[in-house]
Amino acid sequence: MRSGSSALKHAVVLFLVSWMAAHCGNELVVAAGPPDGWYDYSAYTDCRGQPEPAQYNGGILRYSNSEDPTGYKTTETGVLSPAFVVYDLNKTTMYTFSGWIKLEGSSSALVTARLAPDNSGTKCIGTVLARSDCWSFLKGGFTLDWPTQTSVIFFQNADRTPMKITIASGSLQPFTMDQWSMHQKDTIRKRRKRMATIHVADPHGTRVVGATVSVQQTAKDFPFGSAIASTILGNDAYQKWFVDRFNAAVFEDELKWYSTEPASGLLRFDVPDQMLAFVRSHRVMVRGHNIFWENQDATPRWVKGLSPEDLRSAVNTRIQSLMTRYRGEFAHWDVNNEMLHYNFYEQRLGPNATADFFAVAQDADPLATLFMNEYNVVETCDDVSSTVDAYVARLKDLRAAGAVLEGIGLEGHFSKPNIPYMRAVLDKLATLNLPIWFTEVDINNKFDAQTQAVYLEQVLREAYAHPAVSGVMLWTALHQGGCYQMCLTDWNLNNLPVGDVVDRLLQEWQTGQATGPSDAHGAYSFNGYLGEYVVTVNYGNTSAQSTFSLSPGDETRHITVQI
User: Fold this and answer.
1) Phi and psi angles of residue 80, each rounded to the nearest 5 degrees, phi first
2) What are 204-235's pLDDT values in tens digits?
3) What is the pLDDT of residues 245-301, one digit of tens each?
4) Which of 59, 369, 409, 462 would staple 439 via disulfide (CB 3.0–4.6 Å)?
5) Cα separation of 29 and 402, whole Å?
6) 152 forms bridges with which residues in the sheet?
7) Catalytic member of 254, 294, 338, 457
8) Is there a catalytic annotation at residue 346?
9) Residues with Cβ within 8 Å of residue 529, at least 6 apart in sequence
10) 193 pairs with which residues across the strands?
11) Does the annotation count 329 as an active-site position?
12) Which one from 261, 440, 457, 462 is the annotated catalytic residue?
């Protein structure tokens, strides 16, 4: 039995579906099925004087009696308008939605695109921080748990106050699962791999035909890693398990302020020192997490009662003690964690506190890449604190204030992932031309182990395939009592279902041993994943070995081995 609120919402959506079907049904043309074609990664984070034409020419949305290049447009007023009615959406389809939004009645507001499938509630499919003086680009997407006959896509301002919302260049583009996978594989081929040709020649430069060429990848270029904790110290089996898989690490809690300075002036760096020695000895790159955390609950108890003057002194000492000690050791630093959700330091030190943190950190370790780090940016669009436009706006504000902010950190604590929405958010963040890292990926433990594995594979495939993503970190530090949300193995290092997924993907995303004869031109070619390689050439009773790198590039890499 529905509650009164649920019944009212159901009635409103039912009325909207009926009204739109009666008034607008003849203006909407529904394609017979997903067309052949490629995904459009383009996106915009700047506000424009005029909307761009609709992506995919509107996809399955059409305004049949208009030649307007911006496609379907409406300017009806109300929190549930404008809206599109669409028919016969499928469960096994990825839908990407986009459009340009403009307001009347408010200078700016957060606008949410929502889907109401068959009057069975609504789901957020995209957000945009819209304005009255220009057009803002909304990009999102969705999948369905069941097929629907009639669905409504409508728009709301987040605080539900009445205003006029205009949508231009609306587009809803379906892709089959096979098409979506094809896009991922194509991007991997272009961004994560490269063609290479081994030329075999004798000391006189004469090509050698029929030599046996064997190529083996010895290191991967793409950083893929996991959080570790102090539990890895002294645990040889865990250490071997880790370095056999990962080329990147992040310390779960050991660098956080409450760990390194539990009381004022009591500095404890012995544990992170040992952890750093471990990763350094195995050539594992490591992220620094974190300098500050805006969440009051994660602030050292002794810090909470400081006066603003004493707090400012304490934070400067914190940055200097941490980053002077580890100068040049950590590739990245998360400077002020989760600042979109919390404001402990900014509330006490003023709105420029974070910019000051970045400035001091940059001076202390100019070689480190400084990151924002936030949750619920790609995981969901229901969190109004951390929408993609909120992230972009905060990043731009910090850079305008002088912060040297060069990295986008997305935590990636997922429940059920919305993969088309995830890709759309990455598309918008990619417009900033900064490295994007998934920094703390896991799947909520409310799901059973097999479901966690399915969802994790979806997230990892999408992250690895997106052209703007530079690295992926799992939040799977192993403890005897379990992990934060998701463990790859049990305490005895026996794989759990998510561990099987990770092992399978790591195997898939590396070049197996490639072997073959040099051809009539004395050459052997292969398509390999980016990274470090060793090549061995055998011909008759002689052999030669050489090393080379496959770095990003569009051209074929040529390597000559003399034998």
Assistant:
1) -110, 15
2) 999 999 999 999 999 999 999 999 999 999 99
3) 999 999 999 999 999 999 999 999 999 999 999 999 999 999 999 999 999 999 999
4) 409
5) 49
6) 85, 116
7) 338
8) no
9) 192, 193, 217, 220, 221, 222, 509, 510, 511, 550
10) 529
11) no
12) 440
